[in-house]
Amino acid sequence: MSFEKIKAAKNESADFMVNEITHIIKTFEKREPGSKGETDAVNYMKETLEPIADDVKLESFSVTPRAFFGWIYFTVSIALAGYICLYFLPVLTVVLFLFAFSFLIGEFLLYREVVDPVFPKAVSHNLTAVIKPKGEVKRRILINGHPDAAYEWPVNYHLGGVAFVAHFVITMLGCIYVVVLAIISIAMNGVGFYLLPAGGLRTACFVSLIFMPFFIGMYFLSNEKRVVDGANDNLTGCYLGIALLKAMKENNVELENTEVGVLITGSEEAGLRGAKAWCKEHAEEYKNDGVDTVIFSFDTIREAKFLSVNTRDLNNLVKSDERACNLFKDAADDIGIYCAKGTVPFGATDNAAFNQAGLKSAGITALDHNLRNYYHTRRDTYDNLDASCLADTFAVLTEAVKKFDEGK
Fold first, then answer.
1. How confident is the model at residue 197 (pLDDT cuts 50, 70, 90)?
2. Taking all residues of the chain, what is their mean pLDDT, rounded to a whole number?
3. What is the DSSP letter of 8?
4. pLDDT in tens, 303-360
5. pLDDT score, position 1
């Protein structure tokens, strides 16, 4: 039995993925980071993997689920206070806006734990399962996905992705406008206290009121009262790896020196917290054990025409491993399945955390980064999966593992 038979049965593996994703969504509670639903889903995956894998390990870590979007409350509130100061103490406007943006940059742009200490904690989990080779482990490939689901983005649900992005962009332009007015006011009137004099500057300040609804609307960027089903984002990523290990077991595929594993990292939607926690525990071990290790991190495998291996991640700030990217891309090319090279221009996937920790990782997505109406909305359901996209991506993954095992 070989990888060729596994690839040929890609549709059966896709059916398995669809059935398992449907079961999880129908059976368990909503899977926000650190929730009972997330825990139950991971335990179910563990039970599925135990008869398949040689070694299965479940690890817990602490997470603050609502902190990742908590920057909004700090940034918007402080910025609104800064806007009020524009009319009598503009130097404080500049100070407050810079302070406000430190939360946005730290928590949202860089995915650091800036506001986490002030939010309630919960427990999330990482799950690792591997099929060991017959001989000495010389190579290792891990297939990553995250089991948690996002809070809904109301603007994307009600108005679409263009409106979501426009809202964010207009708000940022409003911030720049206010800060520029404050600097002009300081240049004209000094840094002391005064009431804004009549004239063009006062008119310009009143014009800035048009941005106020967009500022206030930022409070509602994410709805923490509604957790989406997260069928595509990202149970698809979890089950690509599980399906491959299952197919290897059923087809008696035993590799000589390559270890193949699944890595399920919790709380990705809380700022890559599970991947970061796993790296904190294991990155040095994996970098120093002499085993050539590659990670494929899958996220939102939904639209085949956008299948992409992402050479950059985390708001385009983190570089993926070139060899890992080429391995997946070459595998797709070899079996005639479309796969582009792209980036993650907005947001991040767990791939970023692995590369930041010095591991060799490639991020793979299959979605339009011009946000679709199912992305982080209640439309991300089991009946909105694309089995053919899952099947093709599974075939590419199988070919990539085969090539890696051959030392390519």
1. low
2. 95
3. H
4. 999 999 999 999 999 999 999 999 999 999 999 999 999 999 999 999 999 999 999 9
5. 47
Rounded Cα gap, residues 84 and 346, in angstroms? 30
Comparing CA positions, the residue from 264, 285, 293 lying closest to residue 31 is: 264
Question: How large is the angle between the packed helices 161-189 and 200-207, nearest 10 degrees?
Answer: 160
60: enclosing H helix or E strand: strand 55-63
* E-only strand ranges, 87-166: 122-131, 139-145, 151-152
Contact at 8 Å (CB) between 237 and 146? yes
Q: Residue 240 and residue 220: Cα distance in Å, rounded?
A: 33
User: What tokens appear for 252 in the block?
Assistant: 């008696």
Q: Does an H or E element contain 213, and which?
A: helix 212-217
Virtual torsion, Cα 374, 379, 382, 387, nearest 10 deg:
-30
The reported pTM is: 0.94
List, in sequence order, the alpha helices (H) in 251-386.
273-288, 322-334, 350-356
Tell me how far CA of residue 267 lies from CA of 40, 95, 128, 242, in angstroms: 14, 33, 15, 19
H helices of 230-349, in order, are 236-250, 273-288, 322-334
Region label for 349, one of left (φ > 0), alpha (ψ between -120 and 50) or beta (otherwise): beta
Task: Specify which residues 378 forms β-bridges with.
Answer: none
